[in-house]
Structures are given as C-alpha cells and as structure tokens.
Amino acid sequence: MASNPAGKCCTVGVKHEGTAKGEIKKIGDVRTYFSYPEDKSTQNAVLILTDVIGLDFINAQLIADQFAANGYFAVMPDLFFGNPVPMNPPEGFEIMKWIETDMPKTDKVDPVVEATIKEMRGPLGVQKIGAVGYCFGGKYVCRHLKKGKIEAGYTAHPSFVDAEELEGIEGPLSISAAETDQIFPAPKRHESEAILNKLDVPWQINLFSDVVHGFAVRSDISKPREKFAKEAAFLQAVHWFDEHVKSS
C-alpha cells in the first residue's frame, strides 16, 4: 500500500460557511455537481473525486467553485450513490463497519469515473482534464491517471491507494500531505516518494506542518496555520494544473 485505508480521522472536521454557486445535474443516473468559470468555457476542466463526506458537503462544493473561479470547469460526481458518511458522525457510528458494508468498492466507483470522463470529453466539450482526489478520491485519481483520460492529477491526504496503482500512473501527480496523518504517515509518504522517483513523470509532494488528515477540505480555518495550509494546498493544485493542463 502507498497509503492506508480510511479511518475515523476521515470523518471529522469543520463545516465551512458559504453559498455554493454551482448546480447539481446528472451524468447518466449519477448526481453530479457542476461549477462553471466566468466565461462558461469547458475547455480546461477539473474532475473532483471527493472524500467520504461526499458530493453534498458544502466544503466540497465551495472547493469546486474555487476551481471554477480560477478558470476551470469543475465536475464532481457522487461516488457514494447518495450514501456518504456524515461529517462528525454521531456516537456509535463505526467507520470500519461502513467501509465493509456500505462503501462503494472499485467495481462500482470505476464506472462512475469512466462515465464522467467520457461525458466530459464528449458532450461537455472538455479538451483537457486535471483530476483532484481528496482522501478516498485519491485512489481513483491514481487509477485513472492514464494517457488519453486525464492530463494531470492532484491528491491531498490520499487513502486506500495500492502501491501498484501509484506505480501505474502515466501523468504528472502532485500530493499534499499532513504532518500528522495515520492514513498517509511518513513511512507511506516515503514509500510513495520511492515509487514516484522511479517513474518518468513529473511529481511533487508538499508536506504541511500543524495539520492533520483531511486538512485540505475540513480544516478549522479560524486557526491561522490550518487556514494557511488549506489555502496553500488548493493553490498547489491550481499551479499544478496551470502547468500541466492549461499549458500542456
């Protein structure tokens, strides 16, 4: 494994304030959040693959809107078929039981990602795609970072990534990591570095102090160091795509 499976830390955090500017429509039968840049262009796009809190989480929608504000058509499918994990779940909720019984497995998630990419490159008129994966979504960025599908990938605090999936990427990959993260701890980060160093693709790993797993989505932005790390991780993704998607 290049990262560990999800745990309780994947379900806790702070809900952010704001009003989503995008809209929810469908690609096939899958609810999908769309957020358009000011000029409504769909040429350059970002496919956002969420953490286990899912599509309807305001933090995820605000992130999609931020990508749109930076000139990218943002597309975010529901990977959990309407059954995500509630943030800060009530006492008694068992994340491991949810993983075993309710979490969609690869044979369910891969077709959603494939269908979304097909729709983006077809009817939606997208020419170049950068893929973003937070926690759970990081696995699927790696799985689909292939020539002809996705131009570049970015993931923050990834989970469930197999070493073979990371070894199989065919495009540039950027990673944001937390100082304290039992899902993507230092040994897994170093393992990932060793794997990436053997590949003939550009790669980047940025490590942020004073934050924990989930910081790029669920940080307490009332705390200056967490706010800085969240914003810097987002800009890391934008700069990566500006280099490897817009200018590729």
From TrEMBL:
Q: Name the residues that span the membrane.
A: none
| Pfam families linked | DLH
Supply the InterPro entries for this chain.
AB_hydrolase_fold (IPR029058), Dienelactn_hydro (IPR002925)
Dienelactone hydrolase domain residues: 31-244
Do the record's keywords include Hydrolase? yes
Which SUPFAM superfamilies does this UniProt record tie to the protein? Answer: alpha/beta-Hydrolases (SSF53474)
- Keywords in alphabetical order: Hydrolase
MF terms from GO for this chain are:
hydrolase activity
Q: Which domain of life is it from?
A: Eukaryota
Q: What is this protein called?
A: Dienelactone hydrolase
The uppermost taxa in this organism's lineage are: Eukaryota, Fungi, Dikarya, Ascomycota, Pezizomycotina
